[in-house]
Amino acid sequence: QFQFAESGGGLVQPGGSLRLSCAASGFTWTYGAIGWYRQAPGQDREGVACITRSGAVRFYSDSVKDRFTISRDNAKNTVDLQMNSLKPEDSGIYSCARGSFCSDYVPAAAVDWGQGTQVTVSS
Question: Which of 3, 19, 26, 60 gets the most CB atoms within 10 Å of its CB?
Answer without folding.
Answer: 60
